[in-house]
Design goal:
The complex is a heterodimer of chains A (514) and B (390). Chain A contains 18 helices and 21 strands. Chain A is of the alpha/beta class and 514 residues long. Chain B has three domains: 100 residues, Elongation Factor Tu (Ef-tu), domain 3, CATH 2.40.30.10; 121 residues, 3-Layer(aba) Sandwich (Rossmann fold), CATH 3.40.50.80; 88 residues, Ubiquitin-like (UB roll) (Roll), CATH 3.10.20.30. In chain B, strand 1 and strand 2 form a beta hairpin. The longest helix of chain B has 20 residues.
């Protein structure tokens, strides 16, 4: 059987969903293929007893109502999904607590630029002058990124504009967060607080590209963060609904067995039942590991693609504990939405410690009731804790030891939370689910259970990815979206890459038609 | 007044650093080998994930054990790959083709997790009235037959972070199987709870696995088994139903968690009995099961338009049977597992029409309710329907 479409999207993860919704909205006949029975990939939820747990989203940054319409909100509106999602905005950034006695801290930071600067001034009197300068730089680099984002068809003349209008961006483009903050001469307190979000990118700030980190600070603190009331599953399903309303077709429980290539151009896919589907564009939300080793013939893959995958390193592996508690957040004293609990404020050390089960004490924990209290039945609360592992320690855990190992690590996370906050939760656990790297591997095919795509290392920082994507030559007909595409893994970047991939595919189709 | 522009190491050094930015990246990519990367399935974590959750398992019936004429135990070995490891209390879903129907049914695993590592699963199938699939299995499955099962699933498992260390298990009929698995897991050192098993049967002839249970209780002080007979007064057995009084009599001192698995009648009875114990909700866990719909006196016939990968097919449905049942009868395969609304594998889009979901069985996600997705295994048609399964 042969079918014909304008575009095929492989995988209904965040990148694939936005790409599909965009293509259908622009009138392209699009087929979305998902091997699982649900849309969303990581962006999903699950029910245990009387609780519905969010599977991965802590906060969605870059949608916030604080600065009005953000690029992300614009995407949701343009593809027809925005009015299907009920957002709750957050006013809290995070509470940062460290465990070690010789580097103890406990800071609670709000969202909003002014609130953030003022609170920091309280913790570190005299800091506001320099912090304001840092925010100026954050806003300046963001302007450049917005400019780059708007580029649909790159022309060499644009380089001139970048060199004349975006000098600050160019100056800092190859520095790490630490290099730039040191230049500003910030105090330890200010640095510790500004670096609080490091675990969301899984990369220590001595290596993490400053523009990458600043764009995240911008998205959270200036743009603001939100939570969808129906969990991230609501965003995923809303995007899917918008897609089908605009004439898109989505096939679930369906796998692609091959991406077909003719004369160096991608021509379509073959499905698990042998159906040949032809298309002008294939947007791949599967990781390059899957695409190159399972879906494509080696001879069809450009040498550059193979080199790129092999040069890069897989980022942190995920671990999460989901708790349904039989007391309200008020009763327990869970007063914060986001808790960052680290061994100490040296994130390089924390990162290195996170290689081993015994020494990893990093966690980012969310009490969903602080976003909206009716997320769980009256008198109960939801708490979910996430940790990240550098390296590949979990590959040593056998199937036989799996349950014991993950239970023991979950217990340590609960103990650490109790120790850091002084809040007892252990006796109130009515429901518990534990996700290890194997869980992410199971549901998303993530290599080694990675949750952040490629490491944002010095050589592979997000700015380098973007620049080389602009000037590099891809494979005609093939576009990547999602966590392994041209940004970093995470909700906002994946939605963005889905949108970019669809736009690139549409542009190529229009050029072809001319 | 012009604002002084920011620089890190002076304009000149910053410019050099930016140029380096381009060369570094090119060097970085070019240093790598132009070979295929590691296959996703070959990462250690992915291998373990796959062994724990294989897409399906091809099994061979290696032995059949008869339990008088009330039930049979089936032992399986694997046709090729090692059997998936599991937690005591989980179930296996089998896929069967019976006539023109394609059906799935779940059975708790009666053997221990350790025995899976040794290449064996065991389930027990009891003869019930109106058991379309159980009758088929009991009458047809024989040693050497090849059957297809999916990976172990289910949430009625012990977790020391949540449950009390002492488990009081209440079993009715063939609901004993997950607890036999748990007892063995305790005895083999794979679970660190204690188990007080209150096993309700009509009479002593109906007790399954008595010898096995007695010997486990005999040799392991963490396991205690009490048989409770409802319809006969026999020496050495408790008489009556497993209710609050019997639980109080045998429950260990201190905190305990109650796990329940059995037929609908037992659940109904416990609904009024368990509250008498004054336990917090977290200490009571039921293996979910479908209570079914209260049958209509005059069942109505409806049609369901099933959309699958863009193709449409119209099938018949009956208001007294679930939407999933209509699929099964028509030979339409959906990835159903639990049949109780819990697992969500059969999730489908209700494009149009009305369904009835029995109270307490709607375990859908919030957004699924918003966008009209249903779990066909616990939905009954109340009009003609259009359902998109894929």
């Amino acid at each position: 059987m042969i079918k014909n479409y304008d575009a095929i999207v492989i995988g209904a993860g965040n990148g694939g969903l936005v790409a599909s919704a965009r293509l259908a909205k622009e009138g392209k006949k699009t087929l979305l293929i998902e091997r699982h029975n649900l849309p969303g990939g990581f962006a999903t939820s699950f029910v245990r007893g009387r609780f519905e747990f969010e599977a991965s989203l802590h906060e969605l940054c870059g949608v916030g109502p604080i600065t009005g319409k953000s690029p992300l909100q614009k995407i949701f509106e343009e593809v027809g999904a925005a009015d299907k999602i009920e957002w709750v905005s957050l006013d809290e950034a995070y509470r940062l607590i460290t465990l070690e006695d010789n580097d103890k801290c406990d800071y609670s930071m709000p969202l909003g630029k002014e609130n953030f600067i003022n609170k920091l001034e309280e913790y570190d009197p005299g800091s506001s002058t320099v912090v304001r300068k840092i925010f100026d730089l954050i806003e300046s680099v963001e302007k450049t990124l917005d400019f780059v984002e708007e580029i649909e068809d790159f022309k060499p003349s644009m380089i001139k504009e970048i060199f004349s209008e975006h000098t600050e961006f160019l100056k800092v483009a190859n520095y790490s967060v630490d290099e730039v903050l040191n230049k500003f001469g910030v105090s330890k307190t200010t640095r510790d607080i500004l670096n609080g979000y490091w675990c969301y990118l899984g990369q220590p700030t001595d290596e993490l590209n400053v523009i990458h980190y600043f764009t995240m600070l911008h998205a959270y603190i200036i743009d603001g963060a939100v939570i969808p009331k129906g969990r991230s599953h609501q965003i995923s399903t809303a995007l899917l609904e918008a897609f089908t309303e605009n004439g898109g077709e989505a096939w679930f429980n369906t796998s692609v067995s091959k991406i077909t290539v003719k004369n160096g151009t991608v021509t379509g896919v073959v499905l698990d039942d042998g159906t040949q589907v032809n298309a002008k564009a294939v947007i791949c939300n599967a990781s390059p590991y899957n695409a190159f080793t399972k879906l494509m013939d080696e001879k069809d893959i450009p040498e550059k693609f193979k080199k790129e995958v092999n040069a890069r390193t897989l980022s942190s592996k995920g671990f999460a504990v989901f708790l349904g508690l039989n007391r309200s957040a008020d009763e327990l004293g869970l007063n914060n939405h986001t808790y960052f609990i680290y061994p100490n404020n040296n994130n390089r050390k924390c990162y290195e410690l996170s290689r081993k089960l015994e020494t990893n004490d990093v966690q980012a924990t969310v009490c969903l009731n602080r976003a909206f209290d009716d997320c769980s039945p009256e008198g109960t609360s939801i708490l979910y804790m996430t940790s990240i592992f550098a390296g590949d320690e979990w590959s040593k855990v056998s199937a036989e030891d799996y349950h014991k190992t993950k239970t023991a690590f979950a217990e340590k996370m609960i103990d650490n939370f109790e120790k850091a906050t002084g809040i007892a939760i252990r006796d109130y656990i009515e429901e518990i689910e534990i996700a290890a790297p194997m869980t992410y591997a199971r549901y998303t095919d993530a290599p080694a259970g990675t949750i952040y795509g490629y490491e944002a290392s010095k050589e592979d920082g997000i700015v380098k990815r973007i620049v080389f994507d602009l000037i590099g030559k891809g494979m005609p007909g093939l576009y990547f979206a999602g966590g392994y595409a041209v940004r970093h893994m995470g909700y906002s970047p994946s939605y963005t890459t889905g949108n970019l991939a669809a736009k690139a595919a549409i542009l190529a189709m229009e050029k072809e038609a001319k | 007044m012009s604002k002084k522009k920011f620089s890190v190491n002076g304009n000149f050094k910053d410019s050099i650093n930016t140029v380096k930015f381009l060369t570094e990246r090119i060097k970085f990519v070019n240093s790598a080998e132009p070979v295929l990367p590691t296959r996703t399935d070959d990462f250690g974590v992915n291998k373990v994930a796959k062994s724990l959750h294989p897409k399906e398992q091809k099994l061979i019936i290696s032995r059949i054990e008869e339990h008088a004429d009330i039930a049979k135990s089936y032992y399986f070995k694997s046709e090729s790959a090692p059997l998936a490891y599991f937690k005591a209390g989980q179930y296996l879903t089998f896929r069967l083709e019976i006539g023109n129907s394609v059906v799935t049914r779940s059975y708790s695993i009666a053997s221990s997790p350790a025995s899976a590592l040794n290449g064996e699963y065991r389930i027990t199938v009891k003869r019930i009235s109106d058991g379309f699939v159980s009758d088929y299995i009991l009458d047809n499955w024989k040693v050497g037959d090849k059957v297809t099962a999916y990976a172990p699933e289910g949430n009625m498992t012990y977790c020391r972070l949540r449950d009390a260390e002492a488990i009081v298990a209440i079993a009715g009929g063939s609901g004993i199987t997950p607890f036999l698995s748990l007892a063995r897991a305790i005895d083999e050192g794979n679970e660190d709870c204690s188990l007080t098993l209150l096993y309700g049967c009509r009479n002593s002839d109906e007790i399954l696995f008595k010898t096995e249970l007695d010997s486990l209780a005999e040799k392991n002080e963490k396991i205690n088994v009490i048989y409770v007979l409802s319809h006969s007064d026999e020496e050495g057995y408790e008489k009556g139903f497993v209710g609050a009084d019997i639980i109080k009599k045998y429950a260990p001192e201190g905190r305990y968690s109650i796990f329940v698995c059995g037929p609908g009648g037992l659940y109904k009875f416990l609904e009024t009995e368990l509250p008498k114990l004054g336990l917090e909700r977290k200490y009571i866990r039921f293996e979910v099961f479908s209570s079914g719909k209260k049958a209509d006196d005059e069942p109505k016939e409806y049609s369901i338009t099933v959309i699958n990968r863009g193709d449409e097919k119209v099938i018949k449905a009956n208001s007294n049977e679930t939407v999933l049942c209509a699929f099964e009868r028509a030979g339409i395969e959906v990835p159903a597992r639990c049949h109780t609304g819990e697992c969500g594998f059969c999730r489908s889009k209700l494009v149009s029409g009305k369904v009835y979901i029995p109270e307490g069985e709607d375990k859908r996600r919030i957004a699924d309710m918003q966008f009209n997705f249903i779990h066909p295994c616990c939905c009954y048609p109340e009009s003609d329907l259009v359902v998109r399964i894929n």
